[in-house]
């Protein structure tokens, strides 16, 4: 597996089935600030079937889809034979990289079950925040991540 220089080689993923989303977001940091959310895990639906426990994502790209809506990014990621990062995977990518200092990350592999809205991890007052967003609107300060495989 060839891994481009800007990609994360791998990241361990702890699922929100194993640790609730509030505790997971608390592990995301920006300096001394810890992350938070008001969203409950039972409102998150993953597009792909995801393992229930701890697993790894490999060859993680966080920068190719900046400026694309989550919906558009989802199609492009699939065209390239890659997998869209779920909420749990996006949190893992934020923990093991410094992505939030450059741009925010859309979790295009998951959606908000009652409404179909997407999710994003942003900085608000320097704190990492996991929140929902419109899946059809692009933003120049965020993009969707992808990985080559899950094991």
Q: Helix and strand succession? A: EHEEEEEHEHEEEEEEE
Structural class: alpha+beta
Low-confidence stretches: none
Domain count: the total is 1
What is the radius of gyration?
14 Å
Largest sheet: 5 strands, mixed
Number of DSSP strand runs: 14
Distance between the termini: 14 Å
Helix content: 10-25%
The total count of helices amounts to 3
Q: Provide mean pLDDT, rounded.
A: 93
What does this structure look like?
This protein is α+β, with helices and mostly antiparallel strands and 151 residues long. The protein has one domain. Helices cover 17% and strands 34% of the residues.
Topology overview:
Elements (H helix, E strand, L loop, with lengths): L7 E7 L6 H6 L2 E2 L2 E2 L1 E2 L6 E3 L7 E7 L9 H10 L3 E2 L2 H10 L7 E3 L3 E3 L5 E7 L2 E7 L8 E3 L1 E2 L1 E2 L1
Parallel strand pairs: 4-11, 8-12
Antiparallel strand pairs: 1-6, 2-3, 5-9, 6-14, 7-13, 8-10, 10-11
Keywords, separated by commas or semicolons:
alpha+beta; 151 residues; 3 helices
Task: Give the gist of this structure.
The protein contains three helices and 14 strands. It has helices spanning 21-26, 70-79, 87-96, and strands spanning 8-14, 29-30, 33-34, 36-37, 44-46, 54-60, 83-84, 104-106, 110-112, 118-124, 127-133, 142-144, 146-147, 149-150.
